[in-house]
Amino acid sequence: MIKRLFHHLIGTISVIFYFVNTVLWATPIIVLSVFKLIPLALWRRFISYLLDACATAWITVNNLNQRISSGTTWHVTGLEKLTREDWYLVIANHQSWVDILVLQRVFNRQIPFLKFFLKKELIYVPILGLTWWALDFPFMRRYSKSFLAKHPHLKGKDMETTRKACERFRFKPVSIMNFVEGTRFTNNKHSKQNSPFTHLLKPKAGGVAFVLSAMGSQLHKLIDVTIQYPHGIPTFWDFVSGKVKDIRVHIDVTPIKEIMDNGYYSDDYFDDPEVRARFQRWLNDRWHKKDELLTSFNATKKSL
Questions:
Q1: What distance in Å separates the CA atoms of residue 203 and residue 286, rounded to the nearest whole number?
Q2: What is the C-alpha separation between 175 and 88, in angstroms, rounded?
Q3: The pTM is what?
Q4: pLDDT in tens, 174-209
Q5: Is the C-alpha dihedral spanning 153, 159, 161, 163 positive or negative?
Q6: Measured at the alpha carbon of residue 102, what is the angle toward residues 99 and 104, in degrees to the nearest 5?
Q7: Range in 2-6, 226-230, 270-274 with the lowest mean pLDDT
Q8: How far apart are the first and last CA of the chain?
Q9: Which among 100, 144, 148, 217 would be 20 to 30 A from 295, CA to CA?
Q10: In 3D, which of 221, 290, 233 has the Cα closest to residue 260?
Q11: Where are the alpha helices (DSSP H) in 169-272?
């Protein structure tokens, strides 16, 4: 009973700290986002660096909050291969909303600030849309096959628009994040998919291919992250209230050039079924290796 009350107290204080810290850093981000509306390239680039600094500081303070409140032991391998000067595509298995906090904790100040591709329509979300735009989150426009069948003259226009949106990253290192399973792992989803993997859902190649098509010439390396919670998949409340004892994170880095040179992917992905099948096989192979790694983690989790 006392232990439960202690966790509730820690969790409540931690959530309040997250909220206050978010408000503290959201304020300058929103203010700077207004200044970024001034259409001068050098000025916008300068403001972008200030905005990323604010976002990095926000995560840094969140991480301090975690260190004080959680008591989690972190087992991280592979960080020594990373720098803040490279352009990265980051993929990971997805089990919980805690995964995002884990990725922010592990990669903060190790690689450029993590960003996600967002649907074009989200730019119109009040306040958040402006914030995401200011932080250089790339907005993408995707046309469905049925839409293109009715408007064939727009074929390739969505990719052209996205590539243009990503031009700013030619001068500024970036890390683009993609959860390739498309959703969080649950036993029910795993069963419905009839997944060939023990600990993972089926990976979807389309999202990764879209990023490579839009930014392949700019990206330097692929970061493949394997996250494991040895004592069970936690909720956000479990994490902030100090109930998560251990977290394992393994980082594998592959040059994007190696993926291209070995023929796993090419710019014909969206037009050539053979290229799509080959790229999906490559991604499935990575997922099999990730599944084996998680199995080995589970075999040794009793030692944690």
A1: 9
A2: 5
A3: 0.88
A4: 999 989 998 899 999 999 999 999 999 999 988 888
A5: negative
A6: 110
A7: 2-6
A8: 25
A9: 100
A10: 221
A11: 187-193, 205-215, 236-240, 256-261
